[in-house]
Please model this.
Amino acid sequence: MIERRKKPTIKDVAREAGVSIATVSNVLKGKTTEVSEPTVEKILKKVSELGYVKNMTASALASRESRVVAVVVIGAFDPGMPLEHQDLNPFFGDFLFRLEYEARRRGYTLMLYAGREEKYLNFLLERSADAAVLVGINPQDMPSVVARSDLRLILFDSMLDDRNQMNVRTNEIRGGEIAAEYLISTGCKKLGFVGHVSMGGKSVPYLRYSGAKKICDESGISIKEFNRVTAFQQGMEVAAEILENGIDGVVTAADTIAAGLVDGLRDQGIDVPGQVSVIGYDNLPLARLVKPSLTTIDQGLTDKVGAVMDLVENGSPGDLREIEPRLVIRESTR
Amino acid sequence: MIERRKKPTIKDVAREAGVSIATVSNVLKGKTTEVSEPTVEKILKKVSELGYVKNMTASALASRESRVVAVVVIGAFDPGMPLEHQDLNPFFGDFLFRLEYEARRRGYTLMLYAGREEKYLNFLLERSADAAVLVGINPQDMPSVVARSDLRLILFDSMLDDRNQMNVRTNEIRGGEIAAEYLISTGCKKLGFVGHVSMGGKSVPYLRYSGAKKICDESGISIKEFNRVTAFQQGMEVAAEILENGIDGVVTAADTIAAGLVDGLRDQGIDVPGQVSVIGYDNLPLARLVKPSLTTIDQGLTDKVGAVMDLVENGSPGDLREIEPRLVIRESTR
DNA sequence: CTGAAAGCGCTTACAG
DNA sequence: CTGAAAGCGCTTACAG
Model:
């Protein structure tokens, strides 16, 4: 590399300003009440003259505060699959960029981990983040070592209540209820639910399903579940089964599935919403964009991301922030 | 927080193993040739007994190697817009997750910056990353301070040649050529190009356009440009203009635009590809998923991400890795 | 109000 | 083959 001037350190600033590095350090972190006005001015002047920027690595080591938030997303991306067959749920990108914005606004930087389960432990332990956000984590994916470390752990959309962790999620049962209520109110007589329900009570899709089922039971309407992973393709493939079962209203666990289902139904010559109503989940940007645009459940992502950062900054073990979902009516329902 | 055992340090390992911390450090970084077999065994045993994990912050400070790669993505996300109107190009998510996988495979962690231009300078300077990947950066977005710092800079899909930086990109001109050649070979008589061409020769869309134009000129076929930002909505809105101009083959600068255009054309009762052929760019997962599925230009993302990490590890200033694009034929062309 | 000094947990010549 | 010591660039009581 080309010869370059070394980056100035706090020592350089101190020397130039004729003060000690302790004083510079105090000024830099805004403890200006403890330092006289002229000294502050002198230091700030030198800081900008020299183009000094604090070395966060050194700061983190000394203060034990890194202002880094680790984000762990498991299973969003399957390295075993060729890229062209990856079907990354756009939710993860939306979530990440939105969280990054909120984090930076508050002076934090995001570190990303998106590998497979077994290995995120080391990542969390060796990178001294102030907090870690675990997205969609299952109990079996959470090594007890992590649960016991002194890292602030924030579980996002996870079904793992533990008084040592913090949780942010949407009221998923209510989301399922809202979806079913709306379909029934628009005249649907036989409902279906498409999502990854096989994992039972601890999974998000299952909770959405159980909310929908509760409403159906109360209304004397039948609901049939179709166990499918969150992916466009899976939604598409389930279309035939929906028809065979004479279903006229479908609650899905994700907009991606719903978009696939709508396409699948259209391929079979079925009119949506004329013959079958479909309701998505998440209110992703794509929900507006597909044809017909999707009626969906907004999971309140903006609020959730804010809640995550609130907990990063001021949360206590056991804290739970549950956001209420909201129905967004578009064209895929009657 | 609950009372917890402190994390063991290299000192604890050294004490337990009865050696100096220097020896432990050597063993941990695989310099086992310099240490006797029994000592290595003894140390490794204690490491796993104590559950010792290296503190990368301290390691980075001492060695000046953080094994962190900073990723800077400008303008993918607009914080000023409400989330439900965000139209984040899924490309960014795909790119990020794919790069994360490749980085982790090689022992690196990703840090993300996705804010606005002016502020990424501090981020880059205060977080001592080993290298920074700047995605789709324009000359005016690159402060000279960054260009001059001793950070390894890798420009991705950027049009900023400088012998101090490294570059990874697709041969964009060739991509445009391939697209136009194919449309013409299938019988299209009048072409259109939709993309953000207004920035001229230094922008990626413009290069794609100029490749297409070159082929058209050689074949005596006309091509009209439609200046649109990369977004589904924009593709949709341009449909009417395409028809007014009697165009029967469209090259686009992105799959998202192409998907919007196809929907827009269908809304107007036009058959794709029967009446108008449309060709995308990027070969995103969504290109397979929309109806009709998109013929598109694969930009070789897997190769590009590999090239990025090659440069992070072994690149020299001025290095350029240019990946050749590839035509992927699906249903949106004749 | 300001500074000297110890310390954060590592790495790196260098001496033996 | 192994260890003592200095140092990375900060922060933090504490003394004056």
Residues 90-105 of chain B form the longest helix (16 residues).
